[in-house]
Design brief:
Blueprint lengths: L8 E5 L2 E5 L3 E6 L10 E5 L17 E6 L5 H4 L2 H7 L3 E3 L5 H4 L1 H7 L23 E2 L5 E4 L2 E7 L8 E7 L2 E7 L22 H15 L4 E4 L8 H18 L7 H6 L2 E5 L2 E4 L6 E5 L4 E5 L25 H8 L3 E6 L5 H4 L2 H8 L2 E5 L3 H5 L18 E3 L5 E3 L2 E7 L8 E7 L2 E7 L2 E4 L6 E4 L11 H12 L3 E4 L5 E2 L4 H19 L14 E4 L2 E4 L4 E9 L6 E8 L5 E4 L2 E5 L4 E9 L5 E12 L2 E13 L1
Parallel strand pairs: 4-5, 5-6, 6-7, 11-12, 16-17, 17-18, 18-19, 23-26, 29-36
Antiparallel strand pairs: 1-2, 2-3, 3-4, 8-9, 9-10, 10-11, 13-14, 14-15, 15-16, 20-21, 21-22, 22-23, 24-25, 26-27, 28-30, 30-34, 31-33, 31-35, 32-34, 35-36
Length: 619
């Protein structure tokens, strides 16, 4: 049947209708009778909104919900019609910004010298209010229609598919993931970066995972329903694997990556080679597991961009963890530091697995309130801790004793975890140092980043910590675990001393203690929201870089229409002293986005000008 000869409305399964529009819109009629007698249904995608004109033909009085598979304009350009009718709209969590605040993408998206090939510009032209994000991996009841949202990255990074159980059959509404057996609607959509192959490789992994779902019917956004899902998906995986390998020097066994992502370090310690960064798994005799770091699981590379829609947390390795190692659940997750590639997947673990997030006391405040701190690589949302761990104090998880040690260096807000497993003392060091080359000829690079609040003596301190604990194995975040040989810990101490010497040679530290990052004053919070016409309380932390006492003169710089209620003024600081000083403002009644507040700083004879800024949204 050619597309032109296909009917505009077709029942493809009992109570499941296909409406042909700018995409296939599926209407799932609820089996649950309403006391009022009305018939409701759920729409998967919305197209131009044509579905609203066909409800009576399906015996439907109204749509109770609309669930979207992805953000592309052909899937939802008619959503303003749904908004007018008050129909709740649920969207994929990774792509929520491309619905609710797509105007920010349009106003900020780089267009000149653009190497970002993602099709984020095939989004809605204007934002639409959404009721929320769908709960991935979980079944949700939409007025009598139970759907499970599965992450299915490929066509877009954040795409989801919806699984429906009806009449003993399992149906999957797959969006534009697959068009026909072995075919996709668009290859261009899966090119997420310039000259790389993250998207096509992810199609292979997703297709194999969908085969595991034992589906009976695939219902795509473009194309005809497919009644042999295993054959259709397997053929797609094979063909896309060929495409991936055609752009590489060596073949990439993606099936092995999916089925065997964990390498065994000892009998009860694994590391996930598919993740960015590596996630370590501690196995308990109870059948439970504890993970150290859990950011981007089962990656095929990183897409261009750092917006939310470019970052995909999911649980791609968990089926292999259960099947190969008999893990019943991941009960606890521990972060070594706050960076997104180490924590982004933890909220999903908590919602799906019931995992508790136990966070050291120097990291918990960062995760709890990311807007407060001017730090790089923070996740988009707060990640609240189920338990806060005191530094230096051992705690128990099942049969293991674990100690979180303060470990500044890569970032000021990091720890190294010490534990003994299978007779080996292991320290999990996060991103503290990078190992280049094979172990026998490996050069350790101290992985310091100035904006992470690196201090020049931090690596001496971490080297002293390692020598004090005496680990047999160091497990880092972006390189293979390293067995500690004779002299290696002494080498790290030497490297830390060498780092101090080069900074002392390059910076005027003998005259002024500017620190490694050169920042002497910071405004807290760095980002904030305040109601129009309300009071805004902030503080500024200032440090004296002189070898003698000095007055710090702090003058706030605010936009027009603001009133300074409490000025920080002048404070006397002892040599090297750091102090926090309060300040408050009355903001105008006009909404503003990212209004700039600065602090003009003079410490003794050192004039720094408008040294530090903060950003304020007035709503």
């Amino acid at each position: 049947m050619t597309p032109s000869s296909q009917p505009a409305l077709e029942e493809v399964f009992r109570g499941v209708y296909l409406v042909r529009d700018t995409c296939n819109v599926y209407v799932i009629v609820s089996d649950v009778p309403k006391a009022s007698g009305e018939r409701t249904a759920v729409a998967v995608d919305f197209g131009s909104g044509l579905v609203l004109d066909h409800l009576a033909e399906m015996g439907v009085d109204r749509l109770s919900h609309i669930v979207m598979t992805h953000h592309h304009r052909d899937q939802g350009q008619g959503l303003p019609r749904a908004v007018e009718l008050g129909i709740p709209i649920l969207v994929p969590p990774t792509e929520i910004d491309l619905f609710a605040s797509v105007d920010e993408m349009w106003s900020s998206r780089q267009l000149d010298n653009d190497y970002n090939l993602r099709q984020d510009r095939f989004s809605l032209l204007e934002p639409v209010p959404v009721s929320g994000a769908v709960a991935e991996y979980l079944s949700t009841d939409y007025s009598g229609v139970a759907l499970t949202a599965l992450p299915t990255p490929g066509h877009t990074i954040g795409s989801v598919s919806y699984v429906l159980e009806r009449d003993g059959q399992t149906l999957a509404f797959t969006g534009d993931f697959i068009y026909a057996p072995g075919k996709v609607w668009s290859l261009a959509a899966s090119q997420w970066s310039y000259s790389q192959h993250e998207g096509p490789a992810m199609v292979v992994l997703t297709a194999l995972l969908l085969v595991d779902e034992k589906l009976d019917l695939l219902l795509p956004s473009h194309g005809r329903p497919m009644s042999d899902p295993d054959a259709a998906l397997s053929l797609l995986a094979d063909r896309m694997q060929y495409l991936v390998d055609s752009r590489r020097w060596h073949p990439w066994d993606l099936k092995a990556r999916l089925r065997r992502p964990f390498l065994k370090i000892t009998d009860h310690l694994l590391f996930n080679v598919s993740a960015l960064s590596y996630s370590y798994v501690l196995l308990s005799e109870t059948g439970e597991a504890l993970v150290i770091d859990y950011g981007y699981d089962m990656t095929t590379g990183m897409a261009t961009g750092t917006d939310r829609a470019a970052r995909r947390p999911w649980l791609g390795s968990l089926p292999a963890l259960r099947e190969e190692f008999g893990v019943t659940r991941i009960s606890v997750a521990l972060p070594t530091h706050y960076h997104d590639d180490h924590v982004a997947g933890m909220p999903l673990l908590r919602s799906v697995e019931g995992t508790e997030i136990w966070t050291p006391e120097n990291i918990a405040p960062i995760l709890d309130d990311p807007w407060k701190y001017d730090l790089p690589c923070q996740w988009f949302d707060p990640i609240h801790s189920d338990r806060v761990l005191p530094l230096g104090e051992p705690f128990r998880w099942n049969e293991y004793t674990i100690t979180p040690h303060e470990q500044p260096g890569h970032t000021l807000f990091a720890v190294a975890y010490e534990l003994e497993v299978d007779g080996v003392t292991v320290m999990f060091t996060g991103d503290q140092q990078e190992g280049l080359g094979v172990q026998d000829e490996r050069n350790e690079i101290l992985n310091y980043q100035y904006r992470n609040r690196f201090r020049i003596h931090d690596y001496e301190a971490s080297a002293d910590l390692y020598r004090r604990v005496g680990p047999g194995l160091l497990a880092g975040g972006h390189w293979e675990p390293r067995w500690v040989e004779d002299g290696y810990l002494d080498y790290l101490r030497y490297a830390g001393e060498d780092l101090v010497e080069i900074h002392q040679a390059l910076l005027p530290l003998d005259e002024l203690d500017l620190g490694a990052d050169g920042v002497l004053a910071r405004i807290v919070p760095y980002r904030s929201r305040v109601g129009a016409g309300r009071r805004l309380d902030m503080s500024v932390t200032v440090r004296n870089p002189h070898r003698e006492s000095a007055e710090a003169r702090l003058r706030p710089v605010v936009p027009g229409g603001w009133e300074v209620l409490v000025a920080p003024g002048t404070v006397l600081l002892a040599p090297g002293e750091e102090r926090e000083v309060a300040m408050s403002f009355a903001v105008p009644s006009v909404p503003m986005r990212r209004a700039r507040v600065a602090i003009d700083v003079t410490i003794g004879s050192l004039s720094l000008g408008q040294h530090s800024e903060a950003l304020v949204d007035i709503e």
